[in-house]
Specification:
The complex is a heterodimer of chains A (184) and B (245). Chain A has 184 residues and is mainly alpha-helical. Chain A contains 9 helices and no strands. Chain A is extended and about 55 Å long. The two termini of chain B are 29 Å apart. The chains are: A mainly alpha (184), B alpha+beta (245).
């Protein structure tokens, strides 16, 4: 897939101005759009999600003069439209994905150790307890455990699910960093 | 969100979801939580085959998907540690203990064998369905060396979609000493995993390998034999095969 040149500083400033007259708000909007593009590309199985998001920005920036004069609507939707086209181009050259390999026991033990370390360092005792309760049991028993845990916490099962999601989102980069360090 | 991640939406519906993700903050939390849910279900084997394939071809193909998958594996290991397995009696030990059984136990074993025989003869389909379809692969000759001149061509195997396991017949070298049991290890170039030995005779050993150990790639099976005196020896053959898409 042929890549465009990254935007010049002047073009990028124009892009930010298009997003919002306030530069700080514009930067927040830009960051939010870029992050969501990366997540969508990831969900669609793109190995180079960041690159594709950058390419989307490059294309949109190249049209910013026209957009500032003519486009009406949420800029995020325009970015998405461009991203969609870039994704279809990407599909033409994508290698067939293979299932994720299962790491061997030693690697898994290292990751497990890192998880324990990160939970101790980055989670409160209460959060660790909730995590443990959330992952107790298997199958039907696990579902029942989660309902019970949510009741005890006085929240809905969905709220508990989101809470766990946020906690795991904090743990994952910590575990990766720890693993990369130990793997060397 | 779950349906989106598992490929159950039309193109148009997918695009609508994606457009909403770009502008609706509330949807993002649900999106992120759903990713964790589907990875958990994937790991627990609770997805249909189509759902598995879609996830493997999409979210799990991305670096983020793989990172979440590895995190899920570590989490599972951490919260559900597997008990230490009791050493399983080898074939020889089981036969030896059977020989030492009192007569009344022989009668019970005899009647059990009849029941099992009936089961094997009349209900093979039920067993197959319960464990998933078994795909009978080729008989592998194996070679002393798998590389360079004289190495035989490597068998390429395409697993049917409904196959849960691959069965291979590994031909033993001519004149191999009789063994009381065999062990097989599957090597995928990164790590090795033990695989089930289904049966053996003087000519070959049959193994079955679960599909989840066989993503497309190159594989080697190493056999070792257990002798009557309890010693173990490696069979000097490399059984190579490729799994292709």
């Amino acid at each position: 897939m042929k890549k465009r040149e990254p935007p010049t500083p002047e073009s990028f400033e124009k892009l930010l101005l298009w997003l919002n007259a306030d530069r700080e708000k514009a930067a927040e909007i830009y960051y939010r759009i870029h992050t969501r593009l990366v997540r969508i590309f990831s969900a669609k199985g793109c190995a180079e999600a960041e690159d594709l998001a950058d390419e989307t920005v490059n294309v949109v920036t190249s049209k910013v003069d026209w957009l500032r004069e003519n486009y009406v609507g949420d800029p995020a939707r325009y970015f998405y439209g461009v991203a969609n086209k870039i994704y279809r181009e990407y599909l033409k050259s994508r290698l067939t994905p293979v299932p994720p390999p299962i790491p061997d026991k030693t690697v898994l033990e290292i990751r497990c150790g890192c998880l324990e370390k990160c939970l101790n360092e980055k989670a409160t005792a209460k959060e660790r307890e909730i995590m443990r309760g959330y992952h107790e049991g298997e199958g039907r028993a696990r579902i029942e455990n989660r309902k019970q845990l949510a009741e005890e916490l006085g929240i809905t099962v969905n709220a508990l699910r989101i809470q766990i999601c946020h906690l795991q989102a904090r743990m994952r980069p910590c575990v990766e960093k720890c693993f990369q360090k130990l793997e060397r | 969100m779950r349906e989106y991640l598992l490929g159950k939406l039309s193109d148009e519906e997918q695009q609508k979801i994606e457009e909403r993700l770009m502008v609706e903050d509330e949807l993002l939390d649900e999106f992120e939580a759903s990713k964790d849910d589907v990875i958990e279900d994937y790991h627990a084997g609770e997805l249909t085959q189509n759902e598995r394939h879609w996830l493997e071809a999409h979210f799990l193909a991305s670096p983020e998907g793989r990172e979440r998958y590895l995190f899920a594996l570590a989490k599972d290991r951490f919260y559900q540690p597997a008990p230490d397995p009791k050493p399983r009696a080898g074939w020889f030990e089981r036969v030896r203990s059977a020989v030492n059984m009192p007569p009344w136990m022989w009668a019970t074993a005899g009647s059990t064998a009849v029941v099992i025989l009936i089961g094997v003869v009349f209900i093979p389909k039920l067993i197959s369905t319960g464990r998933g379809e078994v795909f009978n692969g080729p008989a592998l000759v194996g070679s002393v060396t798998s590389r360079g001149e004289g190495a035989p061509p490597v068998d390429k195997i395409k697993l049917p979609e409904n196959a849960a396991r691959l069965k291979l017949r590994l031909l033993l070298p001519k004149g191999s000493a009789a063994a009381t049991g065999y062990k097989a290890e599957l090597d995928n170039k990164t790590n090795t995993s033990p695989v089930e030995v289904e049966g053996f005779d003087n000519e070959a050993v049959s193994v079955t390998i679960p599909r989840n150990l066989l993503p497309p790639g190159e594989y080697l099976i190493q056999l070792s034999a257990a002798d009557a005196n309890g010693t173990s020896r490696t069979i000097p053959r490399e059984y190579l095969f490729n799994i292709i898409e």
